[in-house]
Amino acid sequence: MRADRIFGVVMVILALGYILSAMSIQTSFLSDPVGPRVFPYMVAGVVLICSLVMILRPDPEVDWPVGGMLLQMALALAVLFGYAMLIRPLGFVIPTVIAAGILSWQINPRPVPAALAGLGLGIGLFVLFKFILGLGLQGLPRALMG
C-alpha cells in the first residue's frame, strides 16, 4: 500500500511539472487548431487522475511479477522504445501498426486479431490526430509521400 501511495505522489509531482513545462510552449499564429499545449495537458490530466486513484485507493497487497511476466514487460518496453525511435523516420502509421499489433498479441496471443487491432489502431489514431484534431502528423515515410 505504501509503495502505491509513494508512486502516486511522485507521479502527481511529475504531472504538475509536465503541466508547467507545457505552459511554456510558445504558440505562433501558424499553429495547429488545437494548439501545441492541449495534448500535454490531456496526458498530464490522465496521469493526475490515475495518480490520485493510486493515492486514495492503493492496492492492498503487492504482487511483483516473476519469470515470464518480466520477459513480457521487457518486450513491451523494447517495443515502446523502438516505437519512439522509428516514428520520425517511418511516419506515424507504420510504427503504430507494428507496436499496437505486438502489444495486442501480448494481451491476447492470437495473431490475426492482434494484427487487425494493430492495423485498426494505427489507421484510426492517425485519422483522429490528423483529421479530427488537426495535428500535423506525417503518416508515412517522406520517401513514400514524394
UniProtKB/TrEMBL annotation:
The keyword Transmembrane helix applies. Residues 6-136 form the DUF1468 domain. It comes from Pseudotabrizicola algicola. InterPro entries: DUF1468 (IPR009936). This is Tripartite tricarboxylate transporter TctB family protein. Keywords: Membrane, Transmembrane, Transmembrane helix. The chain crosses the membrane at residues 6-26, 38-56, 114-137.
